[in-house]
Amino acid sequence: MSCCAPAGFDLHALYPAARPVPAKTRMMLSMLGRHLPEAIVR
Predict the structure, then answer these.
(1) What pLDDT score does 29 carry?
(2) Which of 1-5, 13-17, 29-33 has the highest mean pLDDT?
(3) Whose CB among 6, 12, 23, 26 lies 3.0–4.6 Å from 17's, allowing a Cys bridge?
(4) Phi, psi of 15 (to 5 degrees)
């Protein structure tokens, strides 16, 4: 299963590109990116 951030969601703007982003952090940001638009619309 591939886990990647939604289009337009700039992970490096939130986390310095000089350090590797932990898998758990990528997963949480991806989940947030998917659910945040739904939460805003409601």
Answers:
(1) 86
(2) 29-33
(3) 12
(4) -135, 130
Query: What would the DSSP string read from start to end of 7-25?
Result: TT--HHHHS-TTSPPPHHH
Residue type present at position 41: V
Task: Write down the pTM of the prediction.
Answer: 0.42
Which has the closest alpha carbon to 25: 36, 17, 15?
Answer: 15
Q: Name the one residue in this structure whose structure tokens are 């952090």.
A: 25
Cβ-proximal residues to 19 (8 Å cutoff; 6+ apart), any chain: none
- Tokens 């590109």 sit on residue: 17
Which one is predicted more confidently, 8 or 36?
Answer: 36
Q: Is 20 inside a domain boundary? A: yes
Q: Which domain holds residue 17?
A: 11-41
